[in-house]
């Protein structure tokens, strides 16, 4: 990240981009804003498939977010695009199948280094195996399942915010060293404002699915 010209970009990834990943997106966006990083960090989300591309957020996820004053009416589901490996600084997988899929599709080691399980930032699970850090799909469930998603994401949010704060700080220090003796350039937020003004306006791209050998690969995965 070049901290003087562009924001730090975080993306949350699930299967269909209608339940877990948009919840994580909005929760993280609110947390970064509260931490004073709203102009420095952009959060978005996507799905590993095009199953739900073009559709709004699941109403049950929307209701849960609304109880915390987070509005999701502008969300439009979309599929992951390969170029985002280079354009996103932190790629958060919501469950182990997303983690395996993203890693199998990654074009290089730099992209691999950006992929993390979202719950690996939960202190209670930080030292665990990715298989133990997943957030189960609430799509076939009810209110309690969406409550569980909220709680699991929320437990990881502070760790993610601290991680990004550290990353931004390190980049700022590097930039300051390169520009010693010069007045710091202002942060450019044109992209941030344009992104917020046209949330999720990108068309769903197409990318091949990969068969990733993980412990639960034989289980039927749902579509959110």
Q: Mind telling me the CATH superfamily name? A: Response regulator
Give the SSE string.
Answer: EHEHHEHHEHH
Discrete helix count: 7
Widest sheet, order of strands: 2-1-3-4
Q: What structural class do you assign from the helix and strand content?
A: alpha/beta
Major β-sheet profile? 4 strands, parallel
Helix proportion: 25-40%
Record field, number of beta strands: 4
Distance between the termini: 30 Å
Large-scale geometry? globular
Bin the strand percentage.
Answer: 5-15%
CATH topology (level 3) name:
Rossmann fold
Name the CATH architecture. 3-Layer(aba) Sandwich
Which stretches are low in confidence, meaning pLDDT under 50 for 5 or more residues running?
A: 181-224
CATH class: Alpha Beta
Number of domains: 1
**What is the radius of gyration?**
17 Å
What do these coordinates show?
The chain is 38% helix and 9% strand. The chain has one domain: Rossmann fold (3-Layer(aba) Sandwich). The protein is α/β, with parallel strands linked by helices and 224 residues long. Helix 1 links the parallel strand 1 (8-14) and strand 2. The chain is globular. The two termini are 30 Å apart. The longest helix is centred in the C-terminal third of the chain and has 36 residues, at 143-178.
Characterize this entry briefly.
With 224 residues, the chain is of the alpha/beta class. It has helices at 20-34, 59-66, 84-87, 96-105, 109-113, 143-178, 190-197, and strands at residues 8-14, 41-47, 90-93, 115-117. Helix 1 crosses helix 6 and helix 2 packs across helix 6 (143-178).
């Amino acid at each position: 990240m070049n901290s003087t010209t562009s924001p730090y970009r975080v993306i949350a990834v699930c299967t269909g981009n209608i339940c877990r990943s948009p919840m994580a997106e909005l929760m993280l966006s609110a947390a970064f804003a509260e931490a004073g990083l709203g102009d420095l960090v952009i959060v978005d989300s996507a799905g590993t498939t095009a199953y739900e591309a073009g559709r709004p957020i699941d109403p049950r996820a929307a209701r849960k977010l609304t109880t915390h004053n987070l509005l999701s009416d502008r969300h439009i589901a979309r599929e992951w695009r390969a170029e985002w490996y280079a354009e996103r600084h932190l790629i958060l997988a919501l469950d182990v199948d997303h983690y395996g899929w993203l890693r199998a599709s990654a074009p290089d080691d730099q992209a691999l280094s950006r992929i993390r399980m979202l719950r690996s930032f939960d202190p209670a699970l930080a030292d665990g195996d990715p298989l133990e850090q997943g957030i189960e799909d609430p799509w076939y469930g009810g209110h309690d399942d969406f409550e569980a998603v909220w709680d699991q994401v929320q437990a990881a949010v502070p760790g993610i915010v601290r991680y990004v704060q550290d990353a931004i700080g390190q980049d700022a220090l590097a930039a300051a060293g390169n520009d010693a003796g010069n007045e710091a350039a202002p942060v450019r937020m044109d992209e941030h404002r344009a992104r917020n003004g046209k949330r999720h306006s990108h068309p769903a791209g197409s990318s091949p699915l990969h068969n990733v050998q993980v412990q639960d690969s034989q289980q039927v995965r749902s579509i959110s």
